[in-house]
Amino acid sequence: MRDTRQGDREPAYRSGASAAREAELITRIAAGDRKAFEELYNLYHRRLARFLTRLTRHFDVAEEIINDTFLIVWRKARDFRGDSQPSTWILGIAYRRARNAFRSATRITAGENLEGLLPPLTSNEPMHAEELRDWLLQALVQLPAEQRLAVELCYELGYSCEEIATIMNCPVNTVKTRLFHARAKLQKLLPALGGTAPPDGKVRSSDGGAR
Amino acid sequence: MSSLQRSSVHDEAWLLLPWLANGRLSSEQQVWVEEHVQSCAKCTEELAVQERLCEAFTAPDRVTYAPGPSFRKLLDKLDSPSSEDVERTEPRVRARAGTSRIRQTLWRPPGFAWAASFILMVGMTAIIATAYRWSQPAYVTHSDPVAAAHPGVLHISFDRGVTVGEAGEVLRVNGAQMVDGPDAIGVVGITPAKSTESLRDLAARMRADPRVRWVEPVDSTNDKQQVKNRGY
After folding, report:
1. B24-46 residue pLDDT tens
2. What residues 155-184 of chain A have any CB closer than 8 A to a CB of chain B?
3. Fewest 10 Å CB contacts: which of A57, A60, A70, B156?
4. With an 8 Å Cβ cutoff, are B65 and A46 in contact?
């Protein structure tokens, strides 16, 4: 179970060889190599575009954040000392840019609720992956920005708790707490997530009690 | 294991389930969390939920994001002069921010800043006062001991209407020679032209000359007397 899970989930872009290659690209970028810059950009564009488009719900906003991130990568490449993985460093920059974008553009108003945003559930049948993903995209919008980012970094980008703490520049326990609350809210928003909806629609906590 | 310990293990395992699902727990954590999950129905159920979430998030996207156009936009931004300006101004902005932080720290009361300000203020006042005093002409009278640096010299002042030529004539006629001055107010120091002549005789002759306004021997012994003689 352990080996399979580790092997299946470890994203290829965080393998040792990939990290070494990215570190080498960053060194070349520091020397002003635009080919290396383009290569690194292409490596990260898809995953950042997907991650940020989900967060912001607008590709143009996501693209702006990506380009702002890489503008900083271009300028600060010589400051990269290799204390962390290249992907953690780049995601850290993207995270701060995304957080600033969230602060300046409050697209979701406080009073907005899921009932007005999501189509009604017609049954308690388990969802298909694609259907679940559509619902998740809608549900994510309901989460506070910090929780949303933690969810994406964990589930989509597959970062460890410690890496997320580095990216978000917060203690490891804060990451666990953010994800705990995000999970509780997602379950409330997506009762079919667990297969069947709880009859009272309440969320289960770690002790099985309803919240 | 007590129920309290079991509860604590369960809570911690519950928090770590997302990373068990995404395969990013450390080996050590993975062993004990999996061990707990196998014996806990709630955690087993929750792990299934977490795995579904991971699957949903990592499922292939229906949208393909082409990096080319975005990268071209980035290069345009990179090459634009405004980007260079931003790059150049950033360190200045940071430097200004740094200076501002230092200034704020120094001025934060209470601290050394107030004491330093007070000392600085006192020092500045002293410097300004000294500079002002130095910039003013020294206030001395002709009877001051300082002025008696040349004993045996008469200080005289001519009438205002006396020209330079007439002044020279006065000195010549009275057998005097100029040894000092004239100073800022026209006072000159004189001595007898012949070394054998006394200063007193010369002073008498000079006083008798109507073109001489006043005569004052610098000799300290005569100071008080001369002031009296001057009559002012």
Report:
1. 999 999 999 999 999 999 999 99
2. 155-156, 158-161, 163, 176, 179-180, 183
3. A60
4. yes
Within 8 A of A50 by CB-CB distance, chain B residues are: 61, 63, 65
Supply the range of the domain harboring residue A16: 11-106
Superfamily, domain B150-230: Peptidase S8 propeptide/proteinase inhibitor I9 (3.30.70.80)
Structure tokens at B224: 């008080």
Percent of chain A clearing pLDDT 90 (strictly above): 24
- Residues of chain B contacting residue A5, judged by C-beta atoms under 8 Å apart: 20-21, 23, 30
Mean pLDDT, rounded, for A80-96:
87
CA-based nearest residue in chain B for residue A181: B15
Q: Does A42 touch chain B (CB under 8 A)?
A: yes
The CATH number of residue A23's host domain is 1.10.1740.10
* A194:B15 CB<8 A: no
Q: Which residue of B has its CA nearest to A137?
A: B57
Interface probe with A: pick from B3, B36, B46, B52, most Cβ of A within 10 Å: B52
Q: In chain A, which residues have their Cβ closer than 8 Å to the Cβ of B52?
A: 132, 193
**Residue B184 neighbours by CB under 8 Å, 6+ apart:** B137
Q: Which of A138, A178, A175, A183 is nearest to A159 (CA)?
A: A175
Q: Where are the domains of chain B?
A: 3-58, 68-106, 112-138, 150-230
Find the DSSP H helices in chain B: 3-21, 27-39, 41-58, 67-79, 81-107, 112-135, 164-173, 199-208, 223-230
| B164-173 own/partner pairs: CB under 8 Å, 24+ apart | B166/B211, B167/B211, B170/B206, B170/B209, B170/B211, B170/B212, B173/B209
Judge residue B82's burial from the number of C-beta atoms within 10 Å of its C-beta, 0-12 exposed, 13-18 middle, 19 or more buried.
exposed
Of the candidates B197, B199, B229, the one whose C-alpha atom is nearest the C-alpha of residue B217 is B199
Question: Which residues of chain B are within 8 Å of residue A179 when distances are taken between CB atoms?
Answer: 15, 18
B40-92 pLDDT, tens per residue? 999 999 999 888 888 888 877 666 778 888 888 888 888 876 655 545 444 44
Report the side by side order of strands in the sheet with B176-180: B176-180, B187-192, B154-158, B212-217
To probe the interface with B, which of A67, A78, A138, A190 has the most B CB atoms within 10 Å? A67
Q: Assign residue A170 the CATH number of its domain.
A: 1.10.10.10
A160 and A102 in a common domain: no
Q: What is residue A117's predicted lDDT score, i.e. its pLDDT? A: 38
**A154 with B70: Cβ contact below 8 A:** no
